[in-house]
C-alpha cells in the first residue's frame, strides 16, 4: 500500500529498493530554506543492517501490511525465542534480535505481540511497562533537592535506570520498556 513519506512511523514495515525494512526512528526536518523532508532510520529485515534514508514529505513509499498476533513467551532456545499461541497452543520460533534493546525486559509467561508480514515475524512488542525489583541503589547525597535529582539504580534484570532519591534497594518499581525509564513505585 502506497503512503506519503511523512506518514512513516516507528514500527512500520516498508519496502524500499526491493528489500523489506522495519522503521526504527523517524524525524521530520524543516530547514529554513527549501522543502521539508523526513529522515528515517531503518533496519533490513533479512540482513539486520541499519541505514538512514531521506525522503521529501510529498514522496510515496510502499508500506507493507502486518498481521498482529498475540503470543506468550515460553523460553529462549539459542538465538530464538519460543512463543506459544494462546488459542492453538502451537509453539512459534522468533529471532531474539527482533527485541533489540527491550530484550532484558522479557519475562517468563509474558504476553507479547508479534508483527507478521506474509507469515514472517518482523517485530515484537512487549507490554508498555514492567514491574521489577531494585537490587542496587546509590545512597542519597545530602543536600540534593527532591525535585530534579535522580540517582542510578540497578534492576533485577541488570538494566540501570535513574530513580528518585526516595527509592531504595529491595523496592519494586514500574519501568517503561521502550526507553528504560522509571515510571512509579509498584503498588501493592
Describe the structure.
By secondary structure, this protein is an all-beta fold. It has 3 domains: 2-64, SH3 type barrels (Roll); 67-125, Nucleic acid-binding proteins (OB fold (Dihydrolipoamide Acetyltransferase, E2P), Beta Barrel); 129-185, Beta Barrel (OB fold (Dihydrolipoamide Acetyltransferase, E2P)). The protein has strands spanning 2-4, 13-16, 19-29, 37-44, 50-56, 60-64, 67-77, 80-85, 91-95, 111-117, 120-125, 129-137, 151-155, 160-163, 172-176, 181-185. Strands 1-6-2-3-4-5 form a 6-stranded antiparallel sheet, with no helix packed on it. A 5-stranded antiparallel sheet has the order 9-8-7-10-11, with no helix packed on it. The radius of gyration is 20 Å and the shape is flat.
Largest beta sheet: strand ordering: 1-6-2-3-4-5
Oligomer: single chain
Q: What's the total number of strands?
A: 16
Parts with pLDDT < 50 across at least 5 consecutive residues:
none
CATH architecture classification of the largest domain: Roll
Reading off the top of the CATH hierarchy, the class of the largest domain is best stated as: Mainly Beta
The SSE string, one letter per element, is EEEEEEEEEEEEEEEE
CATH topology of the largest domain: SH3 type barrels
How many helices? The count is 0
Tally of discrete structural domains = 3
- Sum up the overall morphology in one term: flat
Which bin fits the share of residues in helices?
under 10%
- The computed structural class is mainly beta
Largest sheet: 6 strands, antiparallel
Cα Rg: 20 Å
Amino acid at each position: 500500500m502506497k503512503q506519503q513519506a511523512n506518514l512513516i512511523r516507528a514500527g512500520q514495515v516498508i519496502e524500499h529498493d526491493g528489500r523489506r525494512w522495519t522503521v526504527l526512528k523517524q524525524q521530520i526536518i524543516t530547514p529554513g530554506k527549501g522543502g521539508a523532508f523526513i529522515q528515517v532510520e531503518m533496519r533490513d529485515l533479512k540482513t539486520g543492517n541499519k541505514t538512514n534514508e531521506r525522503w521529501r514529505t510529498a514522496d510515496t513509499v510502499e508500506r507493507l501490511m502486518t498481521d498482529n498476533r498475540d503470543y506468550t513467551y515460553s523460553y529462549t532456545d539459542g538465538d530464538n525465542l519460543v512463543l506459544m499461541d494462546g488459542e492453538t497452543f502451537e509453539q512459534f520460533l522468533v529471532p531474539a534480535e527482533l527485541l533489540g534493546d527491550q530484550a532484558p525486559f522479557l519475562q517468563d509467561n509474558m504476553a507479547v505481540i508479534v508483527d507478521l508480514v506474509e507469515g514472517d515475524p518482523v517485530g515484537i512488542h512487549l507490554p508498555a511497562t514492567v514491574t521489577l525489583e531494585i537490587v542496587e541503589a546509590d545512597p542519597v547525597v545530602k543536600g540534593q533537592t527532591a525535585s530534579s535529582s535522580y540517582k542510578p539504580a540497578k534492576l533485577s534484570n541488570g538494566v540501570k535506570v535513574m530513580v528518585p532519591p526516595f527509592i531504595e534497594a529491595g523496592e519494586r518499581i514500574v519501568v517503561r520498556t521502550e526507553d528504560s525509564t522509571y515510571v512509579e513505585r509498584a503498588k501493592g
